[in-house]
Amino acid sequence: MYAVIETGGKQVRVEAGQVLEVSRLKHERGAEVTLGRVLMLVDGERVTAGTPTVPGARVAATVLGHGRRRKIIVGKFRSKKRYRRRVGHRQPLSRVRVDRIDVEGAAHGA
């Protein structure tokens, strides 16, 4: 069984037991959180698409830690003007482990 959720403005496919990096969450390390909105559930041959979300479905996960992504360098340049700007950016993120996908009372966990 897997689900497609929306978190941090992005859609992510998740399964129970999977470890993923999402946009920074405000929860402490070790806290159990409910991830995003469940947009779609797939259980074998049965596909449930939400309009826009699947009612009664939720994805429970545990926060493993916080960090930042690799630095990306952004630059601006204007020709013939001796103008150059370089700026680095590191996106804050949280590492989470998906514990289970709950569907109206039935839980599917790792």
From TrEMBL:
The record's listing under InterPro entries reads: bL21-like, bL21-like_sf, Ribosomal_bL21, Ribosomal_bL21_CS
Q: Which GO terms describe its cellular component?
A: cytoplasm; ribonucleoprotein complex; ribosome
- A GO molecular-function term, please? rRNA binding
Provide one Gene Ontology biological process annotation.
translation
What Pfam families does the record point to? Ribosomal_L21p (PF00829)
Record key words, sorted = Ribonucleoprotein, Ribosomal protein, RNA-binding, rRNA-binding
Q: Which family does it belong to?
A: Belongs to the bacterial ribosomal protein bL21 family.
- What NCBIfam families would the database entry show? L21 (TIGR00061)
What the protein does comes down to: This protein binds to 23S rRNA in the presence of protein L20.
Describe the protein's quaternary organization and the partners it interacts with: Part of the 50S ribosomal subunit. Contacts protein L20.
Protein known as? Large ribosomal subunit protein bL21
Taxonomic classification? Bacteria, Bacillati, Candidatus Sysuimicrobiota, Candidatus Sysuimicrobiia, Candidatus Sysuimicrobiales
Q: Which gene encodes it?
A: rplU
